[in-house]
Predict the structure of ATP synthase subunit b.
Amino acid sequence: MHFDATFFALVALVILFAGFIYIKVPGKVAGYLDERSSNIRRELDEARRLREEAQTVLAEYQRKRREAEAEAQAVLETARSEAERITAEAHAAIEDMIARRTKTAEQKIAQAETQAIADVRSVAADVAVAAAAQVLKTRIGGAAADTLINEGIQAAKARLN
């Protein structure tokens, strides 16, 4: 029988496979593959869990952002209405102050007019009395004239004031 290289290659291959089976290489390879598959499955589960957590956190932050925007809008509206109210109050206060000052000015003007009229009357009375005294002195003489003049001056002053 003649053995060629192919026969020896076949025998070597059978011995190699028998050796692999003897040292349990297929079991170890299967165990390694099972372990690797289990690790990949755990990593995928962890990635899925992390993705769900991230989506939950994202949804929470989006909700908080919407709430913050709504709150900011409410604060803005409140501030705007408060500013409008304060502006209206300020306008009303300014108009009231202007009305009071106008009334005070008008009262001061009326008082000044009254005082001016009284001053003019007083001066006119003094001038009229002085003129009457001068006229009476030139027409009536003596002590009787002085008494009449003084009585007339007092009477004229009392009537004019």
About this structure: The mean pLDDT is 85.
